[in-house]
Amino acid sequence: MAEIIQDEGGHKKGKRRAKKHSTHIDMTPMVDLACLLLTFFMLTTAFSKPKAMEIVLPDKVKDEKPDPKNESKIPKYRAVTIMIDENDKVYYYTGLMEKEPYPEIVETDFSKDGLRKFLLGRNKKLYKQIDSLNTAVLKSKKAISPDTVVKMKRKLRKEDKAGPIVLIKATEKAKYKNMVDVIDEMAICEIPIYAIVDMTPQEKKMLEAKKKGTSTTKQ
Amino acid sequence: MSKIKMTVRTPRIDMTPMVDLFMLLLTFFMLTTTFRPSEAVQVDTPNSISEKTAPDKNVITIFISKDNKVFFNVDEGTDTSQHIRRQVLKSISEHFRIPFTEEQVAKFEKLASFGMPVKNIPAWIDAEQKQRDEMQVGMPYDSVDNQLALWVLFARNANPNAEAAIKGDAEADYKVVKRVLDILQDYKINKFNLTTNLEKVEVKLEN
Question: Peptide bond preceding A66: is omega within 30 degrees of 0, i.e. cis?
Answer without folding.
Answer: no
